[in-house]
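Backbone shape codes:
***
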Amino acid sequence: MSKNVSKESLAERTRFYIDAHPSIKDCVSKGLINYSSLARLIMKEMDIDNEEAVMIACRRYAGKLGVTTDHETSILRILKYSRLEMRTKTCIVTAKNDWTVLHKMDSLFKDLWNESSIMQCVQSASAVTIIADRTLKERIMDTVGRFNIIKIRENLVEIAVKSPERIVDTSGVIAYLITNLSDAGINIEETVSCHTDTIFIVGEADMINAYSVLTKCIQSAETTVKD
């Protein structure tokens, strides 16, 4: 391998490491990091033995990040005008991904529409996840067929972050919220994005903490961002 290729490979591995650690990447982009310490950490975890080259790669990438990325301000600008809605007594029914299940759900959706009830349905390659008020649990199970049920989760809370329409074209908002919830030790049972609504399903035990974390995200945006 030539010297130039080796240098390029080292720079790529350095950028890869920084990209894989969002908290480090954020500090690098804002110049809030000790490059010697970061270089030694990268050397240790990426099995690299050239500290000077890693430091140079970090500084060069920091310059690029500082110029080309400033996602946090745009994210906070969205959250500044967001609000929270919470719905308790939620359940999640997970069923087999079978055409008969979806066919049976069609009539239930029509009935719930007429009743002004809310239910979210998410389909993946292996399952259909139905999020609804727990009073609908038995009705959903009877509709899709109990033999099609994979799992039922109860004692859940739905917290919706309702944002302005600009969220559709703003990257990183959902990741920002998930990171804050994760850092607080909150387990997210499910998350659904529907146009301008970002919906998090958490256990009742995490309800107050999760709502508090999301509230602080919005309050921080309100005090930080100046229009």
Observations:
- Residues 3-69 form one domain.
- The chain has nine helices and six strands.
